[in-house]
Amino acid sequence: MSIDRAPSLRSRLTSGESLVGTFMQLADPAAYEFAGHLGFDFLCIEGEHAGIGPETLQRLAAATELTPTPALARVAGNDPIAIAQALDSGVEGIVVPRVNSGAEAAAAVRAARFPPAGERGLGPARATGYGAEIASYFSRANDDLLLALQVETREAVDRLDELLAVDGADLLFVGPGDLGASLGIADPASPELRAIVTDVIERTRAAGRLTGVFAGTASAAAGWRAAGVDLVILGSDLMWLARGVGATLAELNASGGAAA
């Protein structure tokens, strides 16, 4: 809803930038105002694995707009209402989890794109300035908004060609954790899992689509960026909190609790 619009995340990716963000699971707007000044390229509001409903999502999207960092949202599922509510909140795009077939990919496109590319409805939501910017939003949304489909099951890997054949989806995002679970691979560092994720990324790039992946560590993120992945979601706010507290307590315990 900003008047002075920076280039969209979608345009930055299609122009060749490599972007790194983080998942945000906390539901407090202050966390987004803080994290938005830390240097990430984007924040991804976690609507699938956190207690964030549509009302909260809208408040978090508004808080993020007070910072230099734009927001994406991972929606709860491939549902047209969930997709519409997330986009109406004003985020710059969505990540749709567990898209397993061409039909499911096409359904996500229909829900996320305005006609004639899709079937999304237009109304006086926050993204349109509650109606004040409805015409300008409608004219640019299909070009500006990023639609990422998540590959995280054996079925999605087996039917990857179907997903890639669907027009209107910008990016395929691989979730190695869930994909490993679906494949029966418990070790996230498994060479077998790495090879499968790499194959998905290479096939997606060859089809002219953008690629994305989750990374739990900075070294993993650097490796995927070196491999040409366009968008990396690096950890989450709760991971950084846990690691920071853990490191501080370890340091304290190693010192025997003595005063500095």
The string of secondary-structure elements, in order, is HEHEHEHEHHEHHEHHEHEH
User: Architecture, according to CATH?
Assistant: Alpha-Beta Barrel
Determine the fraction of residues in helical runs and give it as a percent range: 40-55%
Please state how the strands of the largest beta sheet are arranged side by side.
1-2-3-4-5-6-7-8
Q: Outline, from the CA principal axes?
A: globular
Identify the CATH homologous superfamily: Phosphoenolpyruvate-binding domains
Radius of gyration: 19 Å
Provide the CATH topology: TIM Barrel
- Strand content range: 15-25%
Count of DSSP helices?
Answer: 12
Q: What is the count of distinct domains?
A: 1
Average pLDDT for all residues: 95
What characteristics describe this protein?
260 residues; alpha/beta; TIM Barrel; eight-stranded parallel barrel; globular
Characterise this structure.
The protein has 260 residues and is α/β, with parallel strands linked by helices. It has a single domain, classed as Alpha-Beta Barrel (TIM Barrel). The protein contains 12 helices and 8 strands. It has an 8-stranded parallel barrel, surrounded by 8 helices.
Summarize the structure.
By secondary structure, the chain is α/β, with parallel strands linked by helices.
Would you spell out the secondary-structure blueprint of this structure?
Blueprint (H helix, E strand, L loop, with lengths): L8 H6 L4 E6 L4 H7 L6 E5 L7 H11 L6 E4 L5 H9 L4 E4 L5 H11 L21 H11 L1 E6 L2 H5 L1 H5 L6 E4 L1 H8 L7 H16 L3 E6 L2 H9 L4 E6 H18 L6
Parallel strand pairs: 1-2, 1-8, 2-3, 3-4, 4-5, 5-6, 6-7, 7-8
